[in-house]
DNA sequence: GCCAACGTTGGC
DNA sequence: GCCAACGTTGGC
């Protein structure tokens, strides 16, 4: 089963917002590489919910994909910040997925600590200049993040 | 198709 | 707020 990491600015959209809504679209991704990953996501895939552009940045919680990729409606909405007039209706350019909350990490996992986890050495997340907002995570990275965040092992308790 | 300019991301 | 990194745009 693939694992993913989703970035969000918590001032804009936090884990608590997702928890309050119960389920939501992960929309507004306007980067082709991130979009291609969104298109690979399947219902049931676990995701790490990452806070960017905040102090400190890091992983706040775990979410799960509940609906795989479909056209992001906001690309066709002129009143949306994510409106893309160049996206053809016949072949929508941008994709969204639906996610639901799974759990808040008992201990917020700062980027500084993520960098100390050997499994994360190879991740784009820990590389300088990284700007990818949706990225794949290995099972080892996922487990290491949960352990460091004091969470239950979802690999054995789920599914 | 190249590449300079520009805009955005994101850690610090 | 700064600035490095990098994606996108547009002129040629």
TrEMBL record:
Protein name per Swiss-Prot or TrEMBL? EVE domain-containing protein
Q: Which PANTHER family match?
A: THYMOCYTE NUCLEAR PROTEIN 1
CDD domains in the record: EVE
Under Gene3D superfamilies, the record lists: ph1033 like domains
Where on the tree of life does the source sit, at the highest rank? Answer: Bacteria
Residue segments, region Disordered: 70-93
Under the heading Pfam families, the entry gives: EVE
Give TM segment ranges. Answer: none
Q: Which residues form the EVE domain?
A: 3-144
């Amino acid at each position: 089963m693939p694992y993913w990491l989703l970035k969000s600015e918590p001032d804009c959209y936090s884990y608590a917002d997702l928890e309050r809504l119960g389920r939501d679209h992960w929309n507004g991704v306007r980067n082709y590489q991130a979009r291609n990953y969104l298109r690979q996501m399947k219902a049931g895939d676990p995701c790490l919910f990452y806070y960017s552009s905040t102090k400190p940045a890091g992983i706040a919680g775990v979410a799960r994909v509940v609906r795989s990729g479909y056209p992001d409606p906001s690309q066709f909405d002129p009143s949306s910040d994510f409106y893309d007039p160049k996206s053809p209706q016949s072949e929508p350019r941008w994709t969204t997925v639906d996610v639901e909350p799974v759990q808040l990490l008992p201990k917020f996992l700062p980027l500084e600590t993520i960098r100390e986890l050997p499994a994360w050495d190879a991740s784009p997340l820990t590389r300088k200049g990284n700007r990818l907002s949706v990225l794949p995570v290995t099972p080892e990275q996922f487990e290491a993040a949960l352990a460091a965040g004091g969470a239950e092992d979802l690999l054995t308790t789920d599914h």
